């Protein structure tokens, strides 16, 4: 994830638009701690994947009991990377909606 542009060189209306976009992203971004907590409590049922929006994989985990536990066990190593990917795509979508290019 790239840092936002230097706000001191932006005109006021651009700075406010950037702040609004970053505020909207902060409201929808996913927290890795929450994903790990859900993995601990509902990992076999795919709760952490529902939280991250991976509905198809969540349903597969739900009906196979996390691949009989194997899929659930392997997921612990990939949760942080998946949270970063989800947040990156959500941030890009919000910035695009505001017409801001992420450098």
What structural keywords apply?
103 residues; mainly alpha
Word description of this protein:
Its main location: membrane. Keywords: Glycoprotein, Membrane, Signal, Transmembrane, Transmembrane helix. The model has no long low-confidence stretch (mean pLDDT 91). This protein has one domain. It is built from six helices and no strands. It is elongated. 16% of the residues are buried. With 103 residues, the protein is mostly helical. It starts with 11 loop residues before the first helix and ends in a 6-residue tail after the last helix.
Major pleated sheet: none
H/E element order: HHHHHH
Helical percentage = over 70%
Structural class: mainly alpha
Give the low-pLDDT segments: none
- Average pLDDT taken over every residue: 91
Radius of gyration: 17 Å
Strand runs, count: 0
Strand proportion, as a percent range, falls in: under 5%
Number of structural domains: 1
* Annotation field: number of helices: 6
Described by the principal axes of the CA atoms, the overall outline is elongated
How far apart the termini lie comes to 10 Å
């Amino acid at each position: 994830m790239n840092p936002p542009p230097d706000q001191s060189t932006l005109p006021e209306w651009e700075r406010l638009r950037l702040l609004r976009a970053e505020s909207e992203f902060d409201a929808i971004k996913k927290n890795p701690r929450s994903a790990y907590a859900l993995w601990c409590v509902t990992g076999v049922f795919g709760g952490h994947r529902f939280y991250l929006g991976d509905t198809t994989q969540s349903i597969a985990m739900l009906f196979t009991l996390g691949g009989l536990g194997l899929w659930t066990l392997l997921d612990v190593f990939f949760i942080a990377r998946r949270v970063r990917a989800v947040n990156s795509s959500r941030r890009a979508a919000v910035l695009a909606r505001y017409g801001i290019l992420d450098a």
